[in-house]
Amino acid sequence: MTDVFEVDRYDAAGRLGELEVPRAGVTVETPALLPVINPHLQTVTPAQLESEFGAEILITNSYVLYGSEDLREPVEEQGLHDLLDFSGAIVTDSGSFQLAEYGEIDVTTEEILDFQRRIGSDIGTPVDIPTPPDASREQAEDELGTTQDRLATAAEVETGDMLVNAPVQGSTYTDLREEAGAHAAESGLDVFPVGAVVPMMNEYRYAELADVVAAAKRGLPESAPVHLFGAGHPMMFALAVALGCDLFDSAAYAIYARDDRYMTVRTTEHLEDLDYFPCSCPVCTSHTPAEVRSLGADERERLLAEHNLHVSYGELRTIKQAIRRGDLLELVEARARGHPAMLDGYRALLDHAAQLEETDPVSKDTFFHLSGESARRPEVVRHRQRLDRLDPRGDSVLLTEGDAHEDFDECWNVLPPFGPFPRELADGYPLTAEVPERLDAPAYEAAAAGVARLVDAHSDTEFTLAHDDWPASALAGVPDRVDLWNLRGGE
């Protein structure tokens, strides 16, 4: 694996980074959107993407160019950058999408990579096998083996300074995805797309998507730039970035526009259903829905495509600022509340909190506890782990949500969802958290788990927990040998 990717800042597994693309002579800031360009039909031109949207990178299909009577000769003569009129980085797909759709293509990995190199692609792609979700394990293993053989072939092809993708396949089998990630990393290739996930996104299977991406990331080294193939809707960008994805390609902006569909960061609306545009992009501030509906098909499609791009690029800017500020997971949760399937995805993301914690910064801006899911965040996992390094002083310790008490050798604070901690740590992150007065049960249960971890590690110490009327489900998690005081006068 070449050293082309550098991370500047993390939040959870999300990161701000720089992908160096030597053949294009550019460095792409990530997370980055790669608009898909159909070389035969450009609703928004590459030059417009560059000048109006600030696009640094895009993707087009080399197999379409390879098989085109109209474009193959011009692209071989002019080169891809001149043909598309784009000075940034250009990624080319290999025809694997057509393979998935139609069952066969008439090109080999050697042939398509050589073609991609000759036309001036900056990041090329071998012909991998995109195994769909729910395929049999036998099919997934067999097709993964074929993909891995083709990655080995790709590593032997002379590509000059063109970077090469190493797709990570494995269907919905997380162990195969992890294995595929490790194998791809050993291939010597450069960028690592997680493939065959579009069917999951089309079916709103965001929880499974989160598990698949997390598994692929476990196999890949942290220095690997990760592309989520086909992830084109802005509603799921924040979730995917929090999992550690860096690149997203979108044909959705144009496909949706063709069908009179209007993207938001929460959903997709039909133009015919809108009385107002809930957006402040140039398209939406210059037109009403009725005006756009009255236009001819081509102009209507162009305006909707431009709006969809504004929303997509705007969401990535929002995500980058959230990473910079350290509140990416708050943004993920806000987006998750827009759709039940996205909430499933967020909950699946938090199933991997220990994995996210490995790169999550130890200090950020204020932790906001927003729901029961907040009790499962990486910061809570880290605090619980830190308890193993903290030793209470004395034989009797009060763990309290209230004031200190002189009858004990030492008094520690307790703060849901984190649990117990020495009072001198109270001003450090994340214990300065903003917590609602009306907490839900999972916050108290998480705090009780912290109490249990501390108590179990110090069998010779007597503990008393002074709690502010915790629910029974939380108190059930406190070890029996802990004395309980209810600060509201119960027990």
TrEMBL record:
UniProt KW keywords: Glycosyltransferase, Metal-binding, Transferase, tRNA processing, Zinc
Entry annotation: catalytic residues: 93
Catalytic activity: guanosine(15) in tRNA + 7-cyano-7-carbaguanine = 7-cyano-7-carbaguanosine(15) in tRNA + guanine
SUPFAM superfamilies assigned to the protein according to its UniProt record, in alphabetical order: Pre-PUA domain, tRNA-guanine transglycosylase
Enzyme class: transferase
Pfam families membership: TGT
Co-factor binding comment: Binds 1 zinc ion per subunit.
Domain tRNA-guanine(15) transglycosylase-like: 13-340
GO molecular function annotations of the record: pentosyltransferase activity; zinc ion binding
Gene responsible for this protein: tgtA
Entry binding sites for Zn(2+): 279, 281, 284
Binding site for substrate: 128, 196
Keyword check for Glycosyltransferase: yes
Entry EC no(s): 2.4.2.48
Cofactors, names only: Zn(2+)
Family listed: Belongs to the archaeosine tRNA-ribosyltransferase family.
GO biological process, one term: tRNA wobble guanine modification
Chain segments carrying region Disordered: 123-145
Function: Exchanges the guanine residue with 7-cyano-7-deazaguanine (preQ0) at position 15 in the dihydrouridine loop (D-loop) of archaeal tRNAs.
InterPro entries the UniProt entry points to: ArchSynthase1/Queuine_TRR (IPR050076), TGT-like_sf (IPR036511), TgtA (IPR004804), tRNA_ribo_trans-like (IPR002616)
Domain of life: Archaea
Pathway where it operates: tRNA modification; archaeosine-tRNA biosynthesis
Name of the protein this chain belongs to: tRNA-guanine(15) transglycosylase
The UniProt record lists the keyword Electron transport: no
Any one GO cellular component localisation term in the record: cytoplasm
